[in-house]
Specification:
The complex is a heterodimer of chains A (about 375) and B (about 625). With about 375 residues, chain A is an alpha+beta fold. Helix content of chain A is about 25%, strand content about 20%. A 5-stranded mixed beta sheet of chain B has the order 12-11-15-13-14. The chains are: A alpha+beta (about 375), B alpha/beta (about 625).
Chain lengths: ~375, ~625
């Protein structure tokens, strides 16, 4: 690895060649505000909040797009930077329901308090699923903008509720394009893109159709990256604790955290450290776990048919029963079909059992059928 | 060009009809056909009918030049064709009534070379425009075309070409003014298996048509310049990015590429050398921002036309990630001349830091609007009053805006300012791609700022916050001010927003969009203050702030105004002093236009109460209080 050294705010920072200035700063725990940057997406440079001053460079380059070079001298805070950041942030807030920042009760309210007055019903902090989990709030707190010199744009924008798993509320969208880039760069689907120009720009599908009528696969990678409450799951419940597990839907083995509340699975979060998925999940893993885990018809024990009725059994009982039955057959009398929901290792063991123990090559798999 | 005596009726003559876009809209196709037909009917020998690209003097269009005399005909119509053919082409007697008339002296000027609009210019980029048939490569070759390319391929190494261009001092004519040779050097030195040469012909400024006219009038010079540039940087593929709204330019450039390929000036192993270049035409879909080089690259790649931050610069990572050079049409059109006439010759024109000539599209309140090419360093006064022929209608000059919609508006005190990159930037404006809009005393500077911002705001791509939302907020404020709803705090807010949008935006569009507002705030702050504090528009232009009144001592009760008023808000009657109902009036100004000049009874005022009767009263009866 090619190591470089740069100076950020007078502090010597070791970085790897290829890193951006922002990544170098983050690696040294230097906070630079940003809304459009996301670690696994290509640099964009749209929100203009991560502007910094770099010696021998003109103007205020964005840290998220500027490659870090050896010997670079970077300043992340100055009055010129602060002024431009403040203006950019005010402009962003002018197109976003930002009463959650302006409300004078904000300091007094706890995270789950119900608000009964002070701001318009539709703008209340409690109606935003991202309240208290909003990057815009964090950035605004850091930069220190709590009132606007410019008027808020209250023109209503369309809300797309066609997707069964998440909503796209363009009123809250700040056009950071994380969702668009995730859909193109991460999933390779490209169901959404920026449509129209200038102030009329919005996130839209091909032909500006509802998401359900597009090629969207509902994976929710966009939703995960949304810094505000513009793309949010249909049912947002905050979990009490999380349990790490592996998705059972297929053999890939995506690592995930299940959110638990009242001993029930209520949410799913991809594990960014997961070697197979690096945080990514498909529609089944992200939105299909809680329903089937909590379903009343879900099988929790093996069943054995006795006298024409399925009766609950223990695993030992069931395995003994199967072994007893299989023991009667040899070779071509028997065939084995295994499941795509099992892991590669399980499937390997299954065919080993078929070939070495049962003595048959009649092995197949549901994914092929 | 030698000029024969006009009386020599037997001399072989060619009449060149302009077929630039402006003259085509004035029916120059029909004029050409009519000329051909008339010449055939008359059975004239030794008369050729041909066409050229834009002459630049679009104000006088359609224009035609008869060579070899150099007689210049302006405002030609199909009806004039028989007279031109019979009197001039047959009898050798030029048609005097079609001569250009000097706007100041009113004198008729027969010869092209004597017209001040042309004689004060120095044409390098536009040297062939209006002089040759753009659809024939032979015409271009006859005036020395492609000789520079041949010379480069035979005698000069790419490094030497770069050095020549560097020494000539040529700077990018797209607006930023980056030294062209240095740009080529970066790309030449960049490592890459494939390099691209791109000609930026996405001219989007409203009112600018210099790139269009160059491509329509002399496409081969662009191709020759581009081929030399590609040789210098080592590119084997080239793109000309032309906006699709320029169908004639697209057609002529495509034809020129085909002809150049046939003659061996393009394609594989050009002129027997090892150098190959294939040029493709990419038609832009009309987004203004695609003139920005990184947005242009995205557009060629088939992506949404949005700029990306630099570095990395296109010289290292451009089209499809390969080293790429992007030059403006005018920069490339200059290159063959530099190679031909030498760097010293080129560098002898212009100022110390800005060499050569610059092309401007001169428009607005000016007598001679059209396309001009002048040496760098020329004072604005000379452009406006000598080449441009001054402001029509004895109006007073108020401001000139240079550099397209993002340029700044400069007041009269800057008229002696030299036109070059540094001076214009110091004054808060810019060279830009070369728009030049002249404004007279009837232009409201707040409204001008609002207009230009409405353009840049609508053309913002939407990617970065300051440009997308900031320009909209500024526009909202300006609209309020123009409607008389401005607040005192608007001025500092506009100033702050403008400066921070400039500092914070991603690309040149946002970085320059506030210029018209900031310069008018700097030089015409009193107009903003009048709008905000007094609700008055000093130029009497903002409709919400003006009123029309009929003066009772002048009105003769003729009733024309009442008849013409679209909202029927003028009350009166025969021999009655007419009265405008201010509630109903929409301030269209029709009454003022139609009131006979000998009465001049209608006045336009702003933030003024004029004492007029509330009901129509008989004319001539001495008004009681109105005269006071």
């Amino acid at each position: 690895m090619d190591k470089i050294t740069l100076t950020i705010n007078g502090q010597e920072v070791k970085a790897t060649r290829g890193m951006t200035v922002l990544e170098a700063a983050q690696s040294a725990d230097i906070y630079v505000p940003t809304l459009c940057h996301y670690p696994d997406l290509e640099p964009y440079g749209g929100c203009r909040l991560c502007i910094v001053e770099i010696e021998k460079m003109r103007g205020l380059p964005t840290a998220c797009t500027t490659p870090a070079t050896d010997g670079m001298v970077v300043t992340t805070e100055s009055s010129a930077i602060q002024q431009v950041r403040q203006t950019s942030l005010e402009l962003i807030l002018s197109t976003h329901p930002c009463d959650c920042l302006e409300c004078h009760r904000r300091e007094r309210c706890g995270p789950y308090d119900i608000c009964l007055r002070h701001v318009a019903v539709t703008d209340r902090c409690v109606v935003c699923p991202a309240n208290d989990n909003c990057e815009l709030q964090q950035v605004a707190d850091y930069i220190g903008v709590h009132e606007l010199r410019i008027p808020r744009d209250t023109m209503p924008r369309t809300i797309d509720t066609s997707n069964p798993f998440f909503d796209l509320d363009r009123n809250r969208c700040i056009l950071c394009a994380r969702c668009v880039r995730a859909c193109q760069e991460i999933t390779g689907v490209g169901a959404i893109d920026m449509a129209y120009r200038g102030y009329g720009m919005k996130v839209a599908t091909f032909g500006d159709m509802p998401l359900m009528d597009s090629i969207c696969r509902s994976c929710g990678e966009c939703m995960v990256r949304c810094p505000v409450g513009a793309i949010t799951p249909k049912d947002t419940v905050l979990p009490e604790r999380e349990v790490k597990t592996v998705c059972t839907y297929c053999g890939i083995g995506c690592s995930m955290y299940l959110g638990v509340k009242d001993d029930k699975v209520i949410s799913v979060r991809g594990d960014e450290q997961g070697p197979a998925n690096q945080g990514r999940l498909c529609v089944k893993g992200r939105f299909g776990i809680a329903e089937f885990v909590n379903h009343r018809e879900r099988l929790t024990t093996p069943l054995i048919r006795k006298n024409g009725r399925l009766v609950k059994a223990s695993w030992d009982e069931a395995l003994d029963f199967i072994a007893g039955k299989l023991g009667k057959y040899r070779g071509d009398e028997v065939a084995v079909i295994s499941s795509a929901k099992s892991t590669n290792e399980d499937n390997y063991v299954m065919q080993k059992l078929a070939r070495a123990v049962l003595g048959t090559n009649n092995v197949d798999h549901c994914a092929r059928l | 060009m030698t000029r024969a005596k006009p009386s020599n009726g037997n001399k072989e003559r060619t009449i060149y009809v302009c077929q630039g876009t402006g003259c085509i809209s004035g029916k120059s196709f029909e004029i050409t056909e009519a000329l051909k037909k008339a010449v055939k009917e008359q059975g004239l020998q030794g008369v050729n009918i041909d066409f050229t690209g834009c002459h630049g003097f679009c104000e006088q269009g359609p224009v035609a030049i008869v060579e070899p005399e150099g007689i210049f005909y302006a405002h030609v119509t199909v009806a004039d064709v028989p007279e031109i053919v019979e009197s001039h082409l047959r009898d050798g007697k030029p048609v005097e009534r079609l001569f250009y008339k000097d706007p100041v002296s009113g004198e008729a000027i027969p010869y092209h070379k004597d017209i001040k609009f042309y004689s004060m210019q120095q044409r390098i980029v536009l040297r062939n425009c209006g002089r040759l048939n753009p659809e024939r490569i032979e015409d271009y070759m006859a005036v020395g075309g492609y000789e520079s390319l041949k010379k480069v391929l035979k005698e000069i190494t790419p490094e030497q070409v770069i050095d020549e261009v560097k020494r000539s001092g040529l700077r990018g004519r797209g607006g930023a003014g980056f030294p062209t040779g240095t740009k080529w050097e970066f790309c030449h030195n960049a490592v890459g298996d494939q390099k691209y040469m791109i000609c930026n012909a996405d001219e989007g400024d409203p009112g600018a048509f210099m790139d269009r006219s160059t491509m329509e009038g002399d496409p081969h010079t662009v191709i020759e310049g581009m081929t030399i540039a590609a040789y210098a940087i080592g590119a084997s593929e080239g793109y000309i990015y032309i906006r699709a709204e320029y169908p004639l330019a697209v057609k002529r450039v495509r034809l020129a590429i085909q002809q150049a390929e046939e003659k061996g000036f393009l394609g594989d192993k050009i002129q027997g050398s090892d150098f190959s270049l294939h040029i493709h035409v990419k038609e832009g879909a009309g987004a203004f921002v695609c003139g920005e080089e990184t947005a242009l690259l995205a557009s060629i790649e088939g992506k949404r036309g949005m700029p990306r931050p630099r570095p990395p610069f296109p010289a290292n990572s451009g089209l499809w990630g390969k080293p790429t050079t992007i030059n403006n049409v005018k920069s490339l059109a200059t290159v063959p001349v530099i190679i031909d006439k030498g760097t010293e010759w080129y560098a002898s024109t212009g100022t110390e830091k800005s060499k050569g000539t610059c092309v401007f599209a001169l428009t607005g309140k000016i007598a001679n609007s059209g396309l001009i090419e002048v040496p760098m360093g020329i004072p604005l006064r000379k452009i406006i009053y000598e080449i441009g022929g001054g402001i029509p209608g004895n109006k007073k000059f108020k401001a000139v805006q240079t550099g397209g919609p993002s340029g700044g508006c400069l007041p009269e005190s800057f008229l002696d300012q030299s036109v070059d990159y540094e001076s214009l930037a110091a004054a808060g404006s810019m060279m830009g791609s070369g728009g030049m809009v002249v404004m007279d005393e009837e232009t409201c500077m707040v409204d001008v700022a609002r207009y230009f911002l409405s353009f840049t705001q609508a053309e913002s791509c939407g990617k970065c916050v300051p440009c997308r939302i900031g320009t909209k907020q500024m526009l909202d404020i300006l609209e309020r001010i123009c409607q008389g709803e401005g607040r005192p705090e608007d001025i500092p807010l506009l100033q702050q927003l403008g400066e921070q949008i400039k500092a914070g935006s991603l690309c040149g569009l946002g970085q320059t969009a506030p210029n018209p507002v900031l310069t008018t705030l700097r030089y015409f702050r009193d107009e903003y203050e009048a709008h905000i504090n007094e609700k008055r528009c000093p130029a009497l232009s903002c409709t919400k702030l003006i009123s029309f009144y009929i003066l009772p001592d002048k009105c003769q009760g003729c009733g024309i105004c009442a008849r013409e008023c679209p909202t029927e808000c003028i009350a009166g009657g025969k021999r009655m002093v007419h009265v405008i109902d201010q509630e109903k009036c929409v301030r269209c100004g029709t009454c003022l236009e139609v009131c006979p000049e000998r009465f001049s009874a209608i006045i336009k005022v702003s933030a003024e109460e004029v004492d007029v009767p509330s009901e129509p009263i008989p004319v001539k009866e001495k008004p009681k209080a109105a005269a006071a």
